[in-house]
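Repro:
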Amino acid sequence: MSWFTRTPSPSNARARQLVADGALLLDVRTPAEFAEGHVEGALNIPVQELGARMGEIRGRSNVVVYCKSGGRSCAAAGMLEKAGHHVLDVGAMRNY
């Protein structure tokens, strides 16, 4: 059963539960933005590098993705879905 969505979820409880259950938490902002603050445990792969770095998340079928405002996470969610991942796009980091 797929729980993929490109629409940012207003419920951070769902995202947190998915991560607690083993989903990868993916921050697709720039390294500078990540260094300024991020959700603990998140992996940082900028959306511009995601295609080339997809191998880093091989074996992780479930992914929760976020960015600063939702645009980049939506783009990343589409890429991840095409690669066979189940994705929850929470949009902005504050939604997590």
